[in-house]
Amino acid sequence: MIVGVLGAGLMGKEAATDLVKSPQVEKVIIGDLDVGQTEMFAQKLQNPKLEVRHLDANDDESIRSLIKECDVVVNALFYTFNQRVAELAIELGVNAVDLGGHIGGATDYILNLDEKAKAAGVTLIPDLGVAPGMINILAGHGAKKLDKVSSIKLYVGGIPVEPEGIFKYNLVFSLDGVFDHYTDKSHVIRNGEMHEVDSLSEIEPIHFDGFDELEAFHTAGGTSTLGHTFAGIDTLEYKTIRYKGHAEKFKLLVDLGLTNKETMVNAGGNVVSAREVLREVLTPQLRLGDKKDAVLLRVIVEGFEGETEKSYMYELVTTKDELSGTTAMARATANTISVVAQMVGNGTITSHGVYPPELVVPGDLYMREMANRGVEIKEYVKSEQM
Predict the structure, then answer these.
(1) Contact at 8 Å (CB) between 104 and 80?
(2) Sign of the alpha-carbon torsion through 61, 62, 63, 67
(3) What predicted TM-score, i.e. pTM, was given to this entire model?
């Protein structure tokens, strides 16, 4: 199988690193606008399977020239490119997966390409990061074991192992993404009906061994396609994990309008975006640098098997790989999209069309593949006869 990787940012590089290790992958073509830094990555990796290409994501012909040589494409570009990449993959008859983009409706747009993908005989799976992504796969895996699903609760956080600074947080992905998740409304299902709630709200304590006091609160985008897939269940909610006090401090910035894309201010005669200023101020303070990060995850799926009330809980605690220097978030995210891309490319996933991860990715195999990469997801089962 030949796999194309669009984008040589952190996640693209980590996905390519995993892909070239697979005996089923014949070649990996990685494309990026900055060929120089991508060539440096390739020289460091020293794997003959890896080929570097120039890629201008704003140029359809540039994207086409890379995609057409591949059996499956890993789209690791910023989510604003997801729609166009999906359309071009269908046009060229090539399978594709992406890291998600429910903020701004990108994933919804791609899901609406289902009939076109079926007609082209290709498989598209969006939302293959951690949240959404890993949590979707695990939620779907637990749900398939139940006759009736009543509740799905999701908790995920990428945090520093040693908290520092005002927010006790370091960036593990785009700060613009953080602003979106904290500013937009969160969607939850309560008593079988979809509701909007404020992000950064309904703070609750949560415990993971080895970590100081933690909290969890609503943020936008995490439930992604799960709200449609499990429409009508009693409860669905997604909360982000941070160290205690984080939400209250960030909510002040949100309430002041500083994270809102529409907030413009006159500063010394120049009209500037408050959000852009905030981003430039916070980014240097929040960079992870050489610090050690962790990904904490808990997925709880409750329901019934016959008359027995049952719950399946999936839990992950993974930290930065000190040997390779790979962050915990990169390990969890890039391995997820690589594993699923290979499932599509090797015929494990054969359904043509556009599918959310919870409907089409085999959970048992996914968990085994992630464990083989040092990302171990544990399953806990509880049952009670009614």
Answers:
(1) yes
(2) positive
(3) 0.94
Task: Supply the mean pLDDT for the chain.
Answer: 95
CA neighbours within 13 Å on the CB side: how many for 145? 22
Contact status, residue 168 vs residue 293, Cβ threshold 8 Å? no
Q: What percent of the chain has pLDDT over 70?
A: 99
Residue 386 has pLDDT above 60, yes or no: no
Contact yes or no for 316/332 (Cβ under 8 A)? yes
Rounded to whole angstroms, the Cα distance separating 111 from 126 reads: 8
Q: Which residue has the tokens 């007609």?
A: 119
Q: Which CATH class is domain 134-329+375-385?
A: alpha beta
Sequential DSSP letters for 264-310 = EEEETTEEEEHHHHHHHHHHHHHB-TT--EEEEEEEEEEEEETTEEE
**What is 2-126's CATH number, 3.40.50.150, 3.30.70.20, 3.40.50.720, 3.30.70.120?**
3.40.50.720
Q: Encode pLDDT of 168-189 as tens digits.
A: 999 977 788 899 999 999 999 9
